[in-house]
Specification:
Rossmann fold; 3 domains; 21 helices; globular
Length: 483
């Protein structure tokens, strides 16, 4: 391998390099020299302790008893020391080793536990992560990164709300050296010792009560967490929030949200507010080399009857005279589907977020009506970003969505039902015009609304909050006392 003196990389992936290779240290050092400042190396090593590898070393009738398992623990520790020593000699720090238990290994491990004695079970537990994956995945860097552990307590998955606001951003943050993240519905604080670990706890759209919520908040403070509330709607549909003196926003170190109007609202309860508009994790696959012959029209939303009811009569009237071919795909909203006066329609009940995106990926046009009211003015433009990224032309109300495309470069803006019908008819009948708008919509998302373009801002915001945690905790304590 020749060492490059001109080309540098922020990240390098090195696959399946055996630790026993005599040139292991030389290869790793040369690759390390190809990293720019604060770059990372992802290194996968074949795992000699994967359960199938271990089984090949046993005699036909030999079992994994306490003695053989104890030998494996000793070999594993020696292997880890050798790898760490070689990586350190190459100038790299082991930031994290990602465990991965595959389904076959899990089944095998459960069967071994069932017949093991107490001593053997203790060794099996010690070796669990080593026995469970064919590879070790090391995340390496040439600098000491802040160690951040992010936990998020999330909602029951409905309509992708967890994916866009929590799961995907946390996975993106976990690509930074030193960051590890996880999210679950029953996430609880953990006790750790040492000052190097920065712990972050995110409440996702909570309703924190003065009886139970305060106890959880105080426990998190005692454990040294930075506490964040993630909320991306006006609180009015949930009266318990106000009844509990807005503990949702008062009882945390900071709030993160999606829009400036929401930031202004939440800033009245807590001065530390971070604004992170919704982004797509990746560009959806879509072939737009040619305009489609049939216009696939998408509508998918929860609790939007008041928004679509005023426009549907005009759309139904237009459908009786439109000349182009079309087909409606309706997700979630049975009432909207039933009210459409056409046979060219398909209905999909509430589904998982990947399935929702798959249906959306076939759309050429999408209807995004919003009434002009306080709650809607606080909403984010997520629906528009999903639609545009999938390659559909949005026909949208100016409420919220006008800010995303003020010049109307890819959005067809409409206020009254007659305007929605007129815009929809033009897009159905004029395939070339529709195709141009579809490409413009995709370009908008590709250039400005992908998560990787913005995740660094989130990371820097977290670093700034963590540096000021003691100060922020004093302010939080004062707010809690005031309650």
């Amino acid at each position: 391998m020749q060492e490059s003196k001109s080309q540098k990389f922020t990240a390098i992936v090195l696959m399946d390099l055996p630790e026993s290779d005599p040139d292991f240290e030389i290869l790793v050092r040369r690759i390390k020299n190809g990293l720019v400042n604060k770059g990372i190396l992802l290194l996968t090593l074949p795992n000699p302790f994967y359960f199938q590898q271990v089984q090949t070393r046993l005699e036909p009738d030999q079992k994994l008893n306490a003695k053989t398992l104890s030998d494996l623990v000793r070999e594993r520790d020696e292997f880890s020391r050798r790898v760490s020593s070689k990586l350190k000699a190459a100038g790299l720090l082991t930031d994290f080793v990602f465990p991965n238990m595959d389904a076959t290994a899990k089944q095998w491990l459960n069967s071994e536990y069932a017949v093991a004695d107490a001593e053997a079970k203790e060794h099996l537990t010690d070796l669990k992560e080593n026995l469970g994956s064919e590879i070790y995945l090391y995340r390496l860097s040439d600098f000491e990164a802040p160690q951040i552990r992010i936990q998020a307590s999330v909602l029951k998955p409905v309509g992708g709300v967890n994916d866009v606001r929590i799961n995907e951003p946390l996975r993106a943050l976990a690509t930074f050296p030193g960051v590890i993240s996880r999210a679950s519905r029953l996430e609880k604080p953990i006790s750790t010792s040492g000052n190097r670990l920065n712990k972050v706890f995110i409440f996702h759209r909570p309703i924190l009560t003065l009886d139970k919520g305060l106890q959880v908040i105080q426990k998190l403070r005692e454990e040294g967490y930075l506490i964040i509330t993630e909320f991306d709607d006006h609180h009015s549909p949930w009266p318990l929030i106000e009844q509990n003196k807005f503990l949702n926003f008062v009882g945390c170190h900071a709030v993160q949200t999606t829009t400036e109007p929401l930031a202004e609202l939440f800033g009245g309860f807590n001065p530390e507010v971070g604004v992170f508009p919704n982004q797509l994790n990746q560009m959806p696959g879509r072939d737009l080399r040619e305009p489609s012959k049939t216009s696939n029209i998408f509508f998918g939303a929860l609790n939007r009857e008041k928004d679509w009811a005023p426009i549907l009569p005009a759309i139904n009237k237009m459908l009786q005279k439109v000349s182009g071919d079309y087909h409606f795909n309706v997700v979630f909203d049975q009432k909207f589907f039933d009210a459409l006066e056409t046979d060219k329609k398909s209905f999909y009940p509430q589904c998982a977020y990947p399935e929702y995106l798959n249906i959306l990926s076939e759309a050429d046009i999408a209807l995004l009506p919003l009434e002009d009211n306080l709650f809607n003015r606080m909403k984010s433009d997520l629906k528009l970003v999903e639609v545009a990224g999938s390659g559909a032309v949005p026909i949208a109300s100016p409420v919220v969505y006008k800010k995303s495309d003020p010049e109307g470069e890819f959005v067809e803006f409409a206020r009254a039902g007659s305007e929605f019908a007129e815009k929809l008819q033009k897009l159905i009948e004029d395939a070339l015009y529709r195709h141009e708008r579809q490409i413009a919509a995709r370009n908008y998302v590709r250039q400005s609304r992908l998560l990787h373009l913005h995740v660094h801002k989130r990371y820097q915001w977290l670093l700034g909050l963590l540096e000021r945690r003691a100060e922020l905790d004093d302010l939080l304590a004062a707010r809690l006392t005031a309650l």
